[in-house]
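During the reporting period the student researcher (J.K.) took over the structure-prediction task from the postdoctoral fellow and processed the backlog of single-chain submissions. One of the processed entries is reproduced below for the supervisory committee.
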Amino acid sequence: MISGDGDMQLFDEWQQPLSYLEEGAPGFTWTHRVFFAAYNAMKNRGGSIDTPSMCPSWLRSIDAYTDVGWHKVFIPIGPWPQTADPTERLTAEMLRDDCLRYIAGLTPLLLSEGYLPESVEMMQREASAELRSLRARIYSRWAFAWAVKK
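J.K. obtained the following structure tokens:
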């Protein structure tokens, strides 16, 4: 059995977790702001959005599985690292495209959480502009878990 999923937590260009920052603070990004808003909205609705980090524990608790393993991979959101090889660059571009679609689809969730329409539109517009221009040097972390059936 194998499972792969991306964390909602975003990471800076040194692969350290981003902290919540107010607009105007050094290190603030709109991309992190909209992901943070979506994370909280999903959590408030009871979603299991921490699944990527919990999956190995869940697999270990199932007697039918053995040899449980787990690995994390950091992928840049956009092809901003200068050292990326062609495959890494393509993966980063695909992740950026996926994030742009994700951000564009958050309107109903954020509105239902009580955000004002103009706030949602601004977060989406600014986050999308950051990702397109490569201003935000952000990583996404993907967790892969596996186990062998006994």
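The committee noted the following: Residues 2-15+30-149 form one domain.
J.K. will present the remaining backlog at the next meeting.
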